[in-house]
Known about the structure:
By secondary structure, the chain is of the alpha/beta class. It has one domain (2-298): Rossmann fold, CATH 3.40.50. Helix content is 25%, strand content 25%. The protein has a seven-stranded mixed β-sheet. A four-stranded antiparallel β-sheet has the order 9-6-11-12. The radius of gyration is 18 Å and the shape is globular. It starts with a helix and ends with a helix. The relative contact order is 0.17.
Amino acid sequence: xxxxxxFSIIFFFMMxxxxxxxQQVADESFNHEIKNPVYxxxxxxxxxxxxxxxxxxxxxxxxxxxxxxxxxxxYVLKSSSLPFTGSSLAGTKILVIANALPDTMxxxxxxxxxFTKEExxxxxxxxSDGGSLxxxxxxxxxxxxxxxxxESFGFNLINGFAFRKDKKPEFFSRKGxxxxxxxxxxxRTSDERIDSIKVFTGEAFIxxxxxxxxxxxxxxxxxLMPTVAWEFDEKTPSISGQNLVNGAFMEYGNxxxxxxxxxxxxxxxxxxxxxxxxxxxxxxxxxxxxxxxIIHWLDKKL
Length: 302
């Protein structure tokens, strides 16, 4: 009975998420007004969204709202289809990598890195020298694809799926003890304080010593690690979510890095059935400000 219940829960998530991924498109109507922008429009720091690694999220695609929110805060957004080198990273204050994939674009093991060793080295040096990296990796296969980058900074990403056992919506909150009090969740003013964020099925990871945890999983979660994405059976390895996290940040050399284990929370998507997912979700009202707070910290405005 327990095994049957376990896989009925997994099947529920599998059908919901596969259906959403196949039908959801960017919600072009979503807009987040900012009362106190950091910069005049178009005068802010340069933010580059990586689109050179078969990324699932792009500025003209599922991360269109991501770009609009930050443009409303004055930032200059651009995408890049260039491999990471010292010259290609020059001029970028903040680099965003969201759900990169290898050239095979396969969603199965063995995990193949999305980046060459030379790119990992160049990116590591860029951060150490003062760059700011926002690394976003959703559920499997994305953690496996970006693992070499994460590992170079001490983050151990688990190439799996983090599910709530009870199928309830995924909220991380101060009240529940799963969202921590820190410079990012506090923001610049009380109006920017983050009390709750909503996520939409991601991964889990182990942060390095010295990193500040943003959001932590607990025993209500289990992390399943299938051989092929969304294919689960009684042999699928799993671990408890207890003591794992899905958000953390740290200074590294002269630079900064934020790692988040879920990507849709920074998007605004809508399905053919008009269901909303991301910052446009009525229950994710603080997600846009959370995104802004992350960028403000990476921009050294916090």
